[in-house]
Write a structure and sequence with these properties.
By secondary structure, this protein is mainly alpha-helical. The chain contains 58 helices and ten strands. The strands form five sheets. A two-stranded antiparallel ribbon has the order 1-3. Strand 9 and strand 10 form a beta hairpin.
């Protein structure tokens, strides 16, 4: 530095200085010499002098600093001379000249000048240059990287302007420059505005531009040009690398900048619209979960919330895995952990998302990740809950269908599930063996070891004497048969195998069929299951089975069924039976020649009466049992339809043929029957009902008008037989489970110890785990309330054959009621094929049960540590082989006929209301009314089950929801709904269903209609719908509900529905406090002034029996409503104080209602009051007292009045504590400690409020005597000793007078409190 100064002065003073300058100019005109002058150099000392060449360089570089470039780029070398200069004569002019050069120079020179600016500028110039660079940033994308590089090295005062400039170019910047831009933004973000910056950044970032090259690559695969293909591949690689760099930048910011991590989570959490969420959000959440351990719980919570709200659909996750697998693969441990957690969730949408994560991870990642996914799924199956187990098996099923060859590598893991089959139910066993069979037979060589293991397991199970093991063996064997007999595609490698391999396959099939047939033929229950499993296999693999391989089996089936179960119809049947044989239900009476009949009663007699003898003798002949009648027929008709392209002409005679039964006019004869005769009759009716159910299953889809008519008649036969069976089972007989599909009927009075241990073991090892539930489901309650004739058979449902979903196409027939047509026209009605009310009720009842089982509602939650119960899939084995979406699609197809039926019901009850004055036949009218009411309830339940299905919240089912709503909206606006928006369809559907409010025949119907409307309105709930719901609920509450017999509706089901409707009213009304005050101040006094069995005139549903329901709901809603009042602040207005005044007044009114011993359920009301009274006081302390702190000076009188009102209520709560002690009510006493604690806190909080407002002298504390609810003093030894002294202490006055409840306290000065014992 000193040398440069000396050199500079010496040159300036030298007389030849001008000649030196001119000589230097001449010297640098030569390009090579100019290059040497620009290159950096250092002084080299020789023997006493500098070298002349070095001296020349030093002369022109006295203001130069060494840089690390030795290229021949002259502009860059020139610019480098200006870096790190010690002094500049005019720095402003230099910078201005440089910026001017930037505007006119080529891009490479612009790049060099901009990147050199931080080393040239003085500190005072940095802000001004930063603004100019920000302008350059907006002008074009070519200088993005050098500008941001320069800006990142400047000490900026205008960070906001610069960052905004960088933010504006994010959507349009080149993909390769995007990581640099994002890095600059994240590095310059401040904690105060981090959320705002990240929100803007995530809106600007669009990864769809990164997906385009991938799509180009996929299309280029079809092009043969190698040049094009390689170019596309290069583009894809570049795109993937840029995306990888982008997320590396985000990962570094998230890891080392705490504010960025939390701000990104907050930005995603604040997004409410579904369209605002992108693939970027999901990847960032996975990145944060993987990178920051401290934010994992928060990340998981946000992701779970977004899934529940439908903001993170599965399609978004699929796009993330398919288009950005290289990025997401780094987060695989987090993906696996989240998927495992989500499968434990109680929300179905979260569970579905977790299962989709497993599937996408298996498809997108490498072999290590695939192995981990399979291991995790196997762990779920072997050690998870039932729901978790089902989902895991479904995921494995999808994987084995879509990625068979990939999953084959990990078949050893899947095979280990065979060691944990004891906890699997039949449906899960089917899934497991389908997976194993597909793996075993899809690839011949690789699957052979799985085949051997499956053969060993199946042989072991089939030879077992335990019915459960034999059942699993049959299911596994049939699954293997289905895989072996599956048709092979022409291009399939298996179809090109050598002939000996095909013969080996035929041998395997023959061996399996012989093995199962040998193990089943002596046990009717097991044989029936074999037939059912084989029938399900044919139905599931319709058109895919190679029936040539099953010819031998099919021939024996076609031959065995007629020989076993069908006989020629004859006037007399020879043999000795408990009941005389009679041919019934013949629909082909005109065809007397070659008539046939089902030989039912002789078979039942042989089975029931000869059971012991048959079991004792080891017969080699196959057993013929009525248990196999329906299963064998189902298999026969499915096999026949498969062989004849759906035609059932070969077996259509079975539709109209009669059954050998007995005279079923049992009215008045049942009491004379012996126990054995009654059991025989019940078994006979069960077999007959199951036969007719399978007949309806078989022929319900036939187009022939005559066959349709016969199907309807068979439905009538079913309803008639069910009525007869209900009479036989009524009275002193009840069900005892045993292993077959027909229950054993025993007397209630019989000593249970006489029942053999064998029967009990059979009950425990029931083939389907049948355990009739003692608790009534909602459908049971509907039947009981409405007098449904099917209600008495609800507990026997598992023993009836399952109706197929195709049966409900019969609902397209019209409705026929007895009040419209006379007896002569019933024949005509059958000719035009119409449904009767009884048949409609039967079909709707079964449909409701199916929907309740397979379509869970949005409110469904998994109960943790639920009590183990029987197999929930009993009676739904066919239904469980369909997905919920397939079932929902079937119901949507039925919506038009269901709407017609409901409109018919509406018209019927509207006419009934108008004709109430007419005199009709009382008995028939009541019976018909009950039946039609049952149909109405079941129709409403069907609609509610469909529209409350939680699957509609998933993005993939939005089109199905639209189709369903369009059917309802089309009933109001025919032909005008095709182009309506979803919100408009919801409004029209809501209005259509709202029109049925005037015709609901019972309170339970009103309850279901309200729930249905809520299910539709919640998609989403708008203001006018909320008002309509409140108005509708109030209308139902203010309506008198009378049965056809003239009695008021009541009972536990009525109270449950009342509780729901009252909650709906109070939750949807615009002023809940006013509504509660109206009920408590108007309705309750009306009730108290009415007769003993009277009701409130304003609210007829409010009676002495239902008062606890009203009281509980009002207390709960009052406590809930005050919690919605925000906590008080200094700036709050008097509006909140007014709301709290009304709430406290309502609380005081409700408490005073309990003082009067007027109610039937007085103790129950006290329990309600003790619970919700404490919660109200706690809410008051938390939310109202801060408001009173700041309102006391402005509104002294209002605050004083509020506290005095609440004080009277708290005294009554204290009296209730004394009441619980006198009467030793344990349930009530349990609430006392917490209640007294809250009351004590209230005293001290009031004192703190007065101290805050400098009014401590206004506060006194006295001792409150223990009194009962009537105000009478509860005398104790201590209270007698104190006598009148305590009375004087009890009269403390002041604006906030209060006492400590239940504690012995004495005064300790003005406002002071001291505990004494």
């Amino acid at each position: 530095m000193a040398f440069q100064k000396k050199l500079c002065l010496a040159l300036e003073k030298h007389p030849t200085y001008p000649q030196f300058i001119s000589g230097l100019e001449s010297h640098i005109k030569d390009r090579n010499q100019f290059k040497n002058c620009l290159l950096p150099c250092t002084p080299v000392r020789t023997e006493g002098a500098f070298e002349s060449a070095g001296l020349t360089k030093l002369c022109i570089l006295f203001c130069c600093f060494s840089v690390g470039t030795f290229g021949t780029n002259f502009p860059r070398l020139i610019v480098n001379q200006f870096k790190w200069l010690d002094r500049l004569l005019d720095s402003q002019d230099l910078v201005r000249k440089l910026m001017q050069m930037v505007s006119v120079s080529p891009v490479p020179i612009q790049h060099d000048i901009i990147t050199s600016l931080p080393e040239i500028l003085e500190d005072s110039q940095q802000s001004e240059v930063a603004r100019e660079l920000s302008c350059l940033l907006k002008q074009g994308r070519r200088l993005t990287v050098p500008v941001l590089d320069a800006l990142s090295r400047l000490d900026l005062d205008a960070e906001l302007v610069v960052r905004q400039s960088a933010m504006t170019i994010v959507p349009s910047v080149k993909l390769e420059d995007l990581p640099v831009v994002v890095k600059f933004i994240l590095q310059n973000v401040k904690a105060a505005d981090a959320v705002e910056v990240i929100s803007d950044l995530r809106k600007s970032l669009d990864l769809s531009s990164c997906v385009l090259p991938l799509q180009i690559h996929s299309s280029q695969k079809k092009i043969k040009s190698q040049v094009q293909a390689s170019s596309s591949l290069s583009q894809v690689t570049t795109s993937q690398n840029c995306v990888k760099l982008l997320f590396d930048v985000i990962k570094l910011a998230v890891r080392f900048q705490k504010d960025v991590s939390e701000a990104w989570i907050k930005a995603i959490e604040n997004s409410t619209s579904v369209s605002d969420h992108k693939v970027l959000d999901l990847i960032v959440l996975l990145l944060i979960h993987s990178t920051n351990t401290r934010n994992r719980k928060q990340t998981e919570k946000v992701l779970r919330s977004k899934i529940r709200l439908g903001c993170m659909p599965e399609q978004l996750m699929q796009n993330a895995f398919q288009n950005h697998s290289t990025v997401i693969k780094d987060f695989f441990p987090s993906i696996l952990a989240l998927a495992q957690t989500f499968l434990h969730s109680a929300h179905p949408a979260v569970v579905s998302f977790g299962s989709c994560m497993y599937k996408q991870a298996f498809a997108a990642f490498d072999s290590y990740c695939q192995q981990e996914v399979v291991a995790a799924l196997v762990t779920h199956v072997c050690s998870g809950t039932e729901t978790e187990l089902d989902i895991s098996l479904d995921v494995l099923t999808d994987l084995v269908v879509q990625h068979t060859s990939l999953l084959m590598r990990y078949a050893t893991f899947v095979k280990t599930i065979l060691d944990s089959t004891q906890k699997l139910n039949p449906c899960q066993i089917r899934k497991l063996f389908y997976i194993l069979s597909t793996l075993a037979f899809s690839q011949k060589q690789e699957g052979s070891y799985i085949q051997d293991d499956m053969h060993m397991v199946i042989r072991k199970w089939l030879s077992s004497t335990v019915s459960n093991h034999k059942q699993m063996g049959i299911i596994g064997a049939v699954s293997m048969i289905g895989s072996v007999a599956l048709k092979r595609n022409e291009g399939d490698a298996v179809s090109l195998e050598r002939p000996e391999l095909n013969s080996e396959r035929d041998g395997q099939l023959s061996t399996l069929l012989d093995l199962v047939g040998f193990c089943c033929e002596q046990t009717p229950e097991v044989l029936a299951l074999y037939y059912d499993e084989f029938a399900s296999l044919i139905e599931k693999q319709k058109g895919n089975l190679d029936l040539k391989l099953l010819d031998e089996f099919g021939k024996s089936l076609v031959e065995d069924f007629p020989s076993d179960f069908v006989v020629d119809l004859s006037p007399t049947v020879h043999g000795s039976f408990l009941f005389p044989v009679k041919s019934l239900y013949n629909l082909d009476e005109d065809q007397s020649q070659e008539a046939i009949a089902i030989n039912l009663l002789p078979l039942v007699s042989q089975s029931e009466l000869g059971r012991v003898a048959a079991e004792a003798s080891n017969q080699s002949k196959r057993a013929v049992s009525p248990l196999c009648l329906s299963p064998c027929f189902r298999l026969l008709r499915l096999y026949t339809a498969e062989q004849n392209s759906g035609s059932l002409e070969e077996i259509d005679a079975l539709l109209g043929c009669p059954l050998y039964l007995t005279d079923l006019e049992v009215e008045g004869k049942l009491d004379s029957l012996s126990k054995q005769e009654r059991e025989f009759l019940c078994s006979l009716l069960f077999y007959a009902l199951n036969w007719f159910r399978e007949i309806v299953n078989a022929f319900c889809q036939q187009e022939d008008a005559e066959m349709k008519g016969k199907v309807l008649i068979r439905l009538q036969n079913i309803t008639e037989l069910q009525n007869v069976l209900g009479k036989c089972l009524a009275g002193e007989y009840e069900i005892f489970v045993h292993s077959g599909p027909v229950p054993a009927v025993k007397k209630k009075k019989a000593d249970s110890s006489k029942t053999g241990s064998a029967d009990r073991s059979q009950a425990e090892d029931s083939s389907e785990g049948i355990q009739p539930d003692s608790e009534l489901s909602e459908l049971d309650k509907v039947g009981v309330e409405a007098g449904n004739p099917l209600a008495q058979l609800q507990s026997y449902r598992p023993y009836f054959r399952e109706l197929d979903l195709e049966v409900f196409t019969v609902l397209h027939c019209g409705l026929l009621t007895k009040s419209v047509l006379d007896t002569e026209m019933h024949t005509e009605a059958r000719e035009v094929v119409q449904l009767g009310p009884a048949e409609l009720c039967f079909l709707l009842d079964d449909l409701c049960w199916k929907l309740e089982h397979v379509l869970p509602s949005g409110s469904t939650r998994r109960v943790p540590f639920a009590k183990e119960r029987g197999n929930k899939d009993v009676g739904f084995s066919h239904l469980c082989q369909r997905s919920p979406k397939e079932v929902a699609m079937c119901v949507v197809d039925l919506l038009k006929p269901l709407c017609k039926h409901m409109e018919n019901m509406h018209n019927y009850f509207q006419a009934a209301v108008q004709n109430q004055g007419a005199e009709d036949e009382p008995g028939l009218n009541i019976q018909e009314h009950q039946l039609m009411s049952s149909c109405y309830q079941l129709l409403l339940l069907t609609f509610r089950s469909l529209f409350a299905w939680n699957g509609f919240s998933q993005h993939g089912n939005s089109d199905l929801l639209r189709s369903a709503l369009q059917v309802l909206a089309d009933r109001l606006k025919p032909g005008e709904t095709e182009f309506l928006l979803l919100e408009e369809l919801i409004s029209e559907s809501f209005q259509y269903l709202l029109n049925f409010q005037q015709s609901v025949p019972s309170f339970h119907c009103a309850h279901i209609l309200t729930q249905l409307l809520i299910a539709i309105a919640e998609k989403p709930m708008s203001g006018w719908k909320k008002e309509k719901m409140a108005s509708l609920a109030k209308q139902f509450l203010c309506q008198s509900w009378v049965k056809p017999s003239g009695d008021q509706e009541k009972g536990s089901q009525f109270n449950s529905a009342l509780h729901t409707l009252l909650c709906v009213y109070l939750e949807h009304t615009d002023n809940i406090l006013k509504a509660i005050e109206e009920i408590s101040s108007v309705g309750v006094p009306e009730l108290m002034n009415s007769a003993k069995d009277g009701c409130s005139s304003t609210y007829p549903t409010l009676t002495r029996q239902t008062f606890p329901v009203f009281f509980r709901v009002m207390m709960a809603q009052l406590e809930s409503s005050v919690k919605s009042i925000p906590a008080g602040k200094p700036s709050d207005s008097s509006e909140k104080l007014l709301r709290w005044n009304i709430a406290v007044r309502n609380f005081h009114i409700l408490i005073n209602l309990v003082k009067v011993r007027f109610w039937l359920f007085f103790c129950l009301c006290l329990h309600i009051l003790s619970k919700y009274g404490r919660l109200f006081v706690e809410a008051f302390l938390k939310l109202a007292m801060p408001l009173l702190d700041h309102s006391f000076k402005k509104h002294t009188d209002d605050v004083q009045s509020l506290l005095k009102t609440l004080q009277m209520s708290t005294r009554q709560l204290h009296h209730m504590c004394g009441h619980s002690k006198i009467h030793q009510d344990i349930g009530l006493t349990n609430h006392v400690p917490l209640l007294k604690k809250s009351l004590e806190q209230f005293v001290y909080r009031v004192k703190a409020m007065l101290a805050f407002n400098h009014c401590q002298e206004a506060f006194w504390v006295g001792i409150l005597k223990n009194r009962d609810l009537q105000g009478e003093e509860i005398l104790t030894q201590a209270s007698e000793e104190r006598g009148s002294d305590e009375d004087s202490e009890n009269s403390a006055e002041g604006p906030a007078e209060e006492v400590l409840k239940g504690l012995r306290l004495s005064q300790a000065g003005a406002g002071g409190v001291q505990r004494r014992g």
